Amino acid sequence: MAKVKHENLALTSAFNVASLATYNFYEGYDGHFLCEYEDEIIETLIKPQKATALHYFLACFVDVAEEVHDMIQNMDEIKYVYDYIKRVLEEVNLDPKILEPNFESCADEHHEDCECRSILDKWVEYVKENNDLIHEALVHAAFQIVFLDRKFLHDFNEYIAEWIEYHYNSLKEKCGKHLLGEKGFKRVRFPQWLKNAVYHRDKGCCVICRTDLSKLVNINGTHHIDHIVPLRMFGSNDSSNFQLLCETCNTSKGNRTSETNSINIPFWNMD
Q1: Which secondary structure element, helix H or strand E, spans residue 199, and what is its range?
Q2: Which helix (H) or strand (E) covers residue 225, if one does?
Q3: For residue 73, what pLDDT is reported?
Q4: Which of 16, 33, 93, 233 has a CA that sits 20 to 30 A from residue 10's CA?
Q5: pLDDT (tens digit, 9 = 90+) per residue, 70-116?
């Protein structure tokens, strides 16, 4: 089993992506990502994938090249645009090897026809050429943030479940062998990387009763990987639809409820 590699994550920029995505979700998002990425998302619903339905949702809120274009069209202060580009590129570990503009010594107040404007154009072009790499890095980092929020994961997967139920007849034609008649997707084996991720995200505790399942305190703790939205409620095997439960809570919850909670272990308490 390969270890999870330590990575540089573009968390500062990713917070903006995560915030924009979750805000739009709760403000009546139209769900067009389910059409745009339908084939890819169906694969995530059948069995856990590292690229989840949530990744495809977040992808709809990342386009740095377009964002830079809009900033240039709507702003006079191009130094702000340059600072933004430089920060994002540093976060995603891209070094354009391009001369930096010297705005302070530029005689052109509006930077309409000067050397620093021509240098900035090269930075903008670099962003366009590498937009796919930037996109991938920001979606990956934003997922790390949103994956911590079980309340959002619950709501997001209930949204997916409603889509599954509504489109069930067409899903039968596309992936019928992976469905249990009229009852939703079949249960699959969970890969070890997913078990590890859920266990560590939930800090080795049952998310409902908060029992310690790490076996550091109670050697009898048995943990279960649970579908937040059960398969029988048109939940899916998407990797964002899992949580850690103890045996008692898992048995009690069964396939009858999508119970979870937002209780977590902070780094420290304020009282």
Answers
A1: helix 192-201
A2: strand 223-227
A3: 82
A4: 33
A5: 988 876 678 888 999 999 999 999 999 999 887 777 766 666 677 88
Q: What is the DSSP letter of 267?
A: S
Percent of all residues in the chain with a pLDDT value above 90, rounded to a whole number = 72
| Length of the chain measured in residues | 271
- Please state, in angstroms and rounded to a whole number, the distance separating the CA atoms of residues 3 and 86: 31
Task: Give me the phi and psi of 8, to 5 degrees please.
Answer: -80, 120
pTM of the model: 0.90
CA–CA gap between residue 264 and residue 208 (Å, rounded): 10
Two tokens, residue 74: 């709507």
Helix (H, G, I), strand (E, B) or coil at 244: strand
Q: What Rg value do the Cα atoms of the chain yield, rounded?
A: 23
d(CA 120, CA 86): 10
Q: What confidence score (pLDDT) does residue 3 get?
A: 83
> In the chain, count of helices (H) and strands (E)?
12, 2
Q: How far apart are CA 73 and CA 75, in angstroms?
A: 6
